Every structure is written in C-alpha cells, then in structure tokens.
Amino acid sequence: MFILKNSSSISQVAQLRSPKFSQTGSNCTVSFWYYNYGFSVGAAEMQLLVDGLEEPTVLWRIYYNQGNQWLKAFIQLGRLPHPFQLSLDKISLGFYDGVSAIDDITFENCALPSPAISCEGPDRFWCRVTKACIDILLVCDLVDNCGDGTDEDNCDPDLQCNFENGLCNWEQDTEDDFDWIRKQGPTPTLNTGPFKDHTLGTVRGHYLYMESSEPYVFQNKAVLVSPVFNPCVNEACIFRFHYHMFGKQVYKLSVLQRTVSNTKGQLLWYKFGNQGNRWIRQTLHINSSKPFQILVEGTIGDGFTGDIGIDDMSFVSCSLYNGNLPPISTTPAGTSVPVTLPVNNCTEEEFVCRASGNCIHMTKKCDFRPDCSDKSDEASCAMKMCNFEDKSLCGWYQTALEEMSETDSIHSRNVFKWGLGRGANLFPGQEKHSPSIDHTTFTGEGWYLFTDSSVGKFGQTADIATPVISLTGPKCKMVFWNYMSGATVGSLQVLSKIGNITTKLWAQSGSQGAQWNRAEVFLGVRSGFQVVLRAIRGVSYMGDVAVDDITFEDCSPLLIPDRPCTVEEFTCANKYCIPKDNLCDFVNDCADNSDENPNI
Q1: Between 36 and 200, where is the model more confident?
Q2: Do the record's keywords include Disulfide bond (predicted)?
C-alpha cells in the first residue's frame, strides 16, 4: 500500500485502518516494513483505537525522510482485553513531495494462551476459565497472562504497584538529585521514552519515567525506594518489573538492595544504553538474612534523548516488615568505637591490650608489629596487605567526606572520590578508561580502589588516607599496583601527612597504558604520620585512576636486642644492631642516623 501526492490542500491526512480485533494476549506484537522517502515526505504514525476510549494511543511515529530504503517497525501491543483497531495515519502539511508505503504487516503471539488438559507441578498455574497452564512466576505480576484475569486474583496489593493511583507504598528518595515523574502517554521529548504505559497499553495508563532534559545533567540520579521487607532466607523473594530504555543517550538503570537505611546499598542488577522502543520484563531473585529495601535508580546520560520508564512492579514470596531499617554507624574510619576496657593500670601514654589488660607504650600501637597477645594494638590500623577482595577499605578513609554533614557524606553521589569497583560493573565503553580486571585475581569479579572521573571537575582532588602510623623501620616501603589509562587521565600522588602538613613522596601523571603497573614508595623511618593517596581529576571523564594490592613491606620498627651486638654488627647510638655493611650507605638504618655519622 502506498501514497502519492493527490492535492495541495493544507494538512492532508491519509488513513489506513485495520479490521477490528476482539482482544489480544499478553505477548502480542505487530511488525511491518515502511518506506518514507522524498524531499518533503512528511510524518506518519500508527495509532491504537480502543472501543470506549475517545483518545487514540500513538504506537509508532516517524517525522522525516528516511532515505530510499525499506525499514522495519516493531510495536508492542500486549494484553488488550477490549475490541480495537489500528490506524496508520500519513500527515502532510501543505507541500508534499515523496512516497510513503507499508508492506508485510505481521501479528505475532497475539492469541490467548491455549487450554491445557492438565497442569501439574509447583512451578505451574492453571487458569480457571481459559484452562491455560502458565509459569507460576507470571502470577500476580499485574499482567493478565491467562486471558481471563484469574492469575491476578487474590493478590496482595501491598506487593504490587502499576502507578495507576500514585506510587502505592513506594517513595521518592529524598537524597537523590531529582524525582521520578508519573506520566500518561508519550514523554515530552521526541525519539525517547515510552508512548504508553505497560499496564493498560493505552494513553490512559500511567507509568513512571525519568526526564533527561535540562536542568538535569550527566550522572544525576533519580531513586525510588520500596517498603521494607522481612528477611527471606529459605525461599527467595522475587521482584518483577518492566522497564523502557529508548533513546540514543539513554544511560543506566540499576536495582539495589540495602539493609541499613542511610546507604545506597548493594547492586543487584543494571542495564546500560538504548534497548529499543519497547517494555522489557525483568525478574530478580533476592535473598537476605536481614530486613531490606529495594532501590530503583535511574541515571542521566549526556543528552536529552535519554528518558527511562518503569512500570508494573510486583513481589512474590515476600512479606512486609513492620518497622524501619536501622541506620549505619557513622563513626569515622580510623577512629575506634568506645569499648569496655579490661581492668588495668595503664597511663594515658599507654595502650591497653584488649584481652589481657597489659600496657604497651602508645608508640607501639599501629607500628606493623603486634605487641599485644591478641594483636589488638594493630586492629584499627593500616593493614600490611590490602587487595579489597572482601569489599572493605582495610582502614583507609576519606577525611574530606567525613568533614561533610552526615547526610552529605553518605549520599555524596556526585563528588569526585575514591570507591570500590570491578570490571563486571563497567558499562559499555568504560573499559577504554577503567580496568576491566583487577590485579589480585585478574578477573572482572575482582575488586580494586578507584576514582570515578565521570563526576567532579577538572583539577579536583580525592584523598584517601591510612590511620596514623606511630613508627616505621628504616627499610619501610609501600608497594602498590596502579592503573592509569585513558585520553584524559589526571594524576596520582602518594603523600606523607603529619597533622596538616603533607610531603609528596611519589607522583605519576597521564595515561600509562591499559595495564596494571607496579609502584614502590620508600618510607623509611617516620613517626606519627599518615600515607595519603591523592587522585587529581583530568579534563574529562575518560580517565579513571585505580590502585590495587597495596602492601607495606619491612615496616616494623627495629627491636633492641637482648644481647650485645656481634663483631659483624654496628652498635647504634640507640642500642640497635645493624650489619656493618650498612654503614655510610646514605640510608638511616639505625633510625637515629648514627650509622651515617661522618665521625664513625
């Protein structure tokens, strides 16, 4: 079927209507090939006309000359329980020069499910009227998969939300950058977002979407928070939802799970980029030994054609928790939570060993040598080796974040800072400027420490520091692996910090290749200091800085021997013994420089 120019009157409309259909099944789709070519060929759209609904629902639309070629269109109809027609409308505003054509219209999976003679098994559901046998995971998911509605009978409304009457028991996060918007029909921006909701499949239905136009900018986030659910250990809680990610600049949709109230939570699932103009179903199986919440997080891309929609969110094998999640402790890293000390006679200048109550001098705390039998003097200190595989920071902490307010610190989403990452969490294209594998396991599942250059501004710094180290030995050094690859990588520095005074010990700038590189920083004898890793952001997002496998080698202070020094050893002024070969070698081996005295 094709259209040629037939007059020059203003606002010509040519309509081609389908026969009337009585209803469709939940997986119904229609596809066709179209041709829209010419200097001023005009727009075309496919509309859904449902009996009893005055306003048509736009299903598909093109605006411009598509070139001298046939192109395929795909439309989701879904479950339509009432009689309807499709109308293909060709619009020309005055001057019309071109050819529009349609061919090979195909309806697929549009019949109601076939009846079954029997339907056995715990994972099957037998529809009461149509006698269809469907998967149990399709029950109470806000979609009439049976064709008679019986799979949606007797469902708990507290475990479902189709947004037809608001947000149900979900809430907008108060610590994100903007809110999800409840919407009917198309989103305001062309070539992005849904034309219709998923529940009703018409302009009358509601869904939530994330607007990607100004004033919102790249990496801004909108977060929707679920009610609190009871722990689910023996049987997984199942979360079903539908998402729509259509547009050239669609960025990311994530689902997270949290068990404490003031955190972002653990990533369960994510999807990046344009997924086509369609609603997609996703099912997640959730296990938790504690009460938990689900967070649905949409992230803005780098343009206005990045709208994301969500609809028909439901849970099964879950129950609501009567209470709130506890907050996380906000005690700064590097400080200790007050504990009940054993009976002791220690002074203020001494550390109390937690198990025995013995006293050691405070300079022996955090010196890389356990002096207490229970090693409690090294418990909250910098670790000799850290590979981040247990997803902890090994005592390293970010002082700048702790100086923020409690809320800003926990929800600092758009701050240039250090964080844990892994190759498995990278989005397409990010591997060009971030490590796709860690250094410890050499897999995408291994963890490393990195700064995300997609946030922040040129020249901003991110510092992460050890707790205060009381004393180190003369051969102490820090060895670590770093990854700096990308067109706009900034700098990485290692600093020594005493109070508010910092001294640069090591620095590296610019791309070092797509590989992990070893670095060694000599520390030597130092006291009452911190080691600081400082990342400086480059001019754009193409240059994350990462480190892994940080080790402190030979850092324990020297011990005064319980014997005289041998003839092969030199007796330092502080009574330490060192090999005579270490004399006058420009290294402070004695820790008091007596081995470098020119009068030896």
Answers
A1: 200
A2: yes
Long-range pairs for 129-138: beta carbons < 8 A, 24 or more residues apart: 137/238, 137/240, 137/283, 137/316
Q: Which SS3 state, helix, strand or coil, does residue 506 take?
A: strand
177 CB neighbour count, 10 Å cutoff? 17
CB contact at 8 A, 211 and 234: no
Predicted TM-score of the model (pTM): 0.63
Please choose, from the candidates 400, 402, 422, the residue with its C-alpha nearest in 3D space to the C-alpha of residue 410. 402
Residue 408: partners with Cβ closer than 8 Å, 6 or more residues away: none
CATH class of 157-316: mainly beta
187 pLDDT more than 70: yes
What are the domain boundaries of the chain? 11-108, 157-316, 348-381, 382-403+415-553, 560-599
Q: Does domain 11-108 have CATH number 2.40.30.10?
A: no
The yes-or-no verdict on residue 8 having pLDDT over 60 is: no
N- to C-terminal Cα distance for the chain?
A: 104
Residue type, 299: T
The domain defined by 348-381 folds into Low-density Lipoprotein Receptor (4.10.400)
- At 414, the amino acid letter reads N
Token readout for 501 is 């005074």
Cis amide bond preceding 186, omega within 30: no
* Averaged pLDDT of the chain: 88
Per-residue pLDDT for 142 more than 90?
yes
CATH of region 560-599, choose from 1.20.1530.10, 3.90.550.10, 1.10.287.3610, 4.10.400.10:
4.10.400.10
Tell me, which fold does domain 382-403+415-553 have in CATH? Jelly Rolls (2.60.120)
Instruction: Write the burial class of residue 10 (CB in 10 Å: 0-12 exposed, 13-18 middle, 19+ buried).
Output: exposed
Q: Which neighbouring-strand residues pair with 256?
A: 267, 295
For the beta carbon of residue 484, count every other beta carbon within 10 angstroms.
Answer: 27
Identical fold for domains 157-316 and 348-381, yes or no, is: no
- How far, in Å, CA of 466 to CA of 458, rounded? 25
Radius of gyration of the chain (CA): 33
* Structure confidence by residue, pLDDT tens digits, 39-52: 777 788 999 999 99
Q: What is the pLDDT of residues 473-521, one digit of tens each?
A: 888 999 999 999 988 999 999 999 999 899 999 999 999 999 999 999 9
Nearest to 248 by CA among 177, 193, 310: 193
User: CA-CA distances (angstroms) from residue 253 to 209, 222, 542?
Assistant: 11, 10, 21
